[in-house]
Amino acid sequence: MKILMAKIPFWTNLGWSLYVGLMSTALTLLFCSMAGFAFAVYEFRYKKWLFGLVMGTMLVPSFLGMIPTFLIMDALSWIDQPRALYLPGAAPAMGIFLMRQYIASAIPKELIEAARMDHCGEFRIYWSVVVPLLGPAFGTLGLIAFIASWNNFIGPLVVMRSVEMYTFPIALRSVQSPVDTEWGALMAGSAIAVIPLLIIFVFSSRRLIEGLTAGAVRG
Predict the structure, then answer these.
(1) Which of 31, 35, 45, 87 is 20 to 30 Å apart from 8, CA to CA?
(2) pLDDT in tens, 91-107
(3) Which residues contact 3 (CB under 8 A, 6 or more apart)?
(4) Counting beta carbons within 10 angstroms of the beta carbon of residue 197, is it exposed (0 to 12), middle (13 to 18) or buried (19 or more)?
(5) Could you give the CA distance from residue 76 to residue 56 in angstroms, rounded to a whole number?
(6) Which value, in Å, is the radius of gyration of the alpha carbons in the chain?
(7) CA 91 to chain CA mean position, Å
(8) Whole-number Cα distances in Å, 70 to 10, 36, 57, 86
(9) How far is CA 39 from CA 4, 50, 51, 217, in A?
(10) How far is CA 38 from each of CA 1, 91, 102, 105, rounded to the nearest angstrom?
């Protein structure tokens, strides 16, 4: 550990990874649940085309966005800023699809109509009626989003420049050297990197199972 801390700002890098992971997870849950709610509840023009367009983005390889992402972040002066890691991917297509399917299958439309009859506004219906029922879907998507953010390597590699702003995976990679790699320190850092994922999984595993089995046929 002493060797690892001497080579990189260990706690700073770990803190940035936690911050980016939590912000990315929170924004993903918010935006994906709102988009999923809109696609599941409302009828509007070109709805199927728009949803198909969103799903179509899943077919685009992520590496094709590296150069456009860098150019956009540079134009916004977000290079070497944490917001460049959690804002661009805050509404992934997979999350929108998961939320849309869960809301459409697990939340009765009669409940939403009853709220409208009680003169609830649309945002009030989303926030007070739908969100409290999204626990299993939030657990599933939150775990996926946090793991994806925590393990993200290409994103920080493209937009981060200073060692102090590196997330943990990039910081560990910077420890490696073609001629002199402290493998003991690298393995210790890799072991520490797994701990937050284990903690998140322990607290969200029940919700994850509920989300994956939602809508299953019961005998």
Answers:
(1) 87
(2) 999 999 999 999 998 89
(3) 182, 184, 185
(4) middle
(5) 27
(6) 20
(7) 8
(8) 26, 28, 19, 14
(9) 48, 9, 7, 24
(10) 49, 13, 12, 14
